[in-house]
Design goal:
The radius of gyration is 15 Å and the shape is elongated. The protein starts with a helix and ends with a helix. With 82 residues, it is mainly alpha-helical. Helix 1 runs antiparallel to helix 3 and helix 3 runs antiparallel to helix 4. It is built from 4 helices and no strands. It has one domain.
Length: 82
C-alpha cells in the first residue's frame, strides 16, 4: 500500500468516525477524543499537514459542539413532555 493509499484510507476512517452516529450518541466525550487523537496521530506520522490537522480539529470541535447541543435539545424536549 502506497503513502497516498494510506493517507486516503486513514482520512476515510476519520470521516467514518466523524459521522458515526452510534458512537456519538453513546459516548460523546470518548468519540470526540478519538477524533482528536486520530487527527493528531496522522499529523505526528506526517500523513497530514499542520494545516490539515488544524482543519480536522476544527471539524471535530464543531461536531462535538453540535452533538452536545443535540443532546441538550433532546433532554429539554423530554422534560417538557412530562
Amino acid at each position: 500500500m502506497g503513502n497516498e493509499d494510506i493517507r486516503n484510507r486513514e482520512l476515510e476512517l476519520w470521516n467514518i468516525l466523524l459521522n458515526h452516529e452510534g458512537r456519538r450518541e453513546l459516548a460523546i466525550d470518548h468519540w470526540s477524543g478519538e477524533l482528536t487523537g486520530h487527527a493528531m496521530t496522522l499529523a505526528r506520522l506526517e500523513v497530514i499537514s499542520a494545516e490539515e490537522l488544524q482543519e480536522m480539529l476544527e471539524y471535530a470541535d464543531a461536531a462535538y459542539s453540535h452533538a452536545i447541543e443535540q443532546s441538550h435539545t433532546r433532554e429539554w424536549e423530554r422534560s417538557n413532555k412530562r
